[in-house]
Amino acid sequence: MNTKNQKEEESVTDPRRARIVHAALEVFLAYGFSRTTMDDIARAAKLSRPALYLLFRNKADIFRAVGAALLEQSCVQAEEALKEGGTLDERLMKALDKALFHLTRMVDASPHGQELIDVENRIAADIVAEWRERLVRLFARAIAEEAAQRGTDLEAADMPPDELAAMLFDVLEGMRLRGLCGKAGEEGAGRMVRLICLAVSRL
Q: Residue 9: what pLDDT?
């Protein structure tokens, strides 16, 4: 693990860094990235500016730490949802809600949501890519386990679980780019999940 990623993961476990990350999230949502200053974050975290600089080099570092903490939490919650009882489609949709829809609703509720997404794509794209890969693995494992229980050979049907999981997230990203967010996006995800479940149960 490189030093940058290690420091970002420490934001989840170090109480001081975690407090800053929590405070910074509220400030970024309220004021956006460009208008937020290190002074704003220091005040929100109830720290002096020098104390803040002892833990983070700049605002971009804090933004990356916020993203890393949010996405780590979403993966943990998605994994828990996939392990719970219920049908495959229920578990997949619950995991999507924990991993993605909850974050989307939070960002969309901010008047600076689009700016935050743009900044995320610019300075935290690597974190988002790792998060997506991790979620694809989690969903692929759940799909593979369900197929095994049903005796469905997805590989023979040229529908390997990892490809189905990746396709699900490709569809979600495509809908987002087309502006299909909120309820419309969640309904679209539900249709894709049902198609996956049909493949698992009927092949």
A: 52
Within the chain, residue ranges assigned H as helices are 3-13, 15-35, 38-44, 49-55, 59-83, 88-96, 102-108, 113-123, 125-150, 161-177, 182-202
161-177 vs 125-150: helix crossing angle, rounded to 10: 130
Tokens, residue 41 = 């974050």
- Alpha-carbon distance 126 to 122, whole Å? 9
Residue 156 has pLDDT above 80, yes or no: yes
* Per-residue pLDDT, 2: 47
Tell me the H-state helices in 97-160.
102-108, 113-123, 125-150
For the chain, percent of residues with pLDDT exceeding 90 = 80
Q: What is the CATH number of domain 3-61?
A: 1.10.10.60
Torsion of CA 5, 9, 14, 19, to 10 degrees: 100
- Rounded Cα gap, residues 174 and 192, in angstroms: 12
Q: Is the pTM higher than 0.85?
A: yes
Backbone φ and ψ of 178, nearest 5°: -85, 0
pLDDT at 13: 65
Q: What is the signed CA dihedral for 34, 37, 43, 49, rounded to 10 degrees?
A: 150
* Closest of 9, 63, 56, 75 to residue 36, by C-alpha: 63
The domain locations on the chain are 3-61, 72-202
C-alpha span between 138 and 90 (Å, rounded): 15
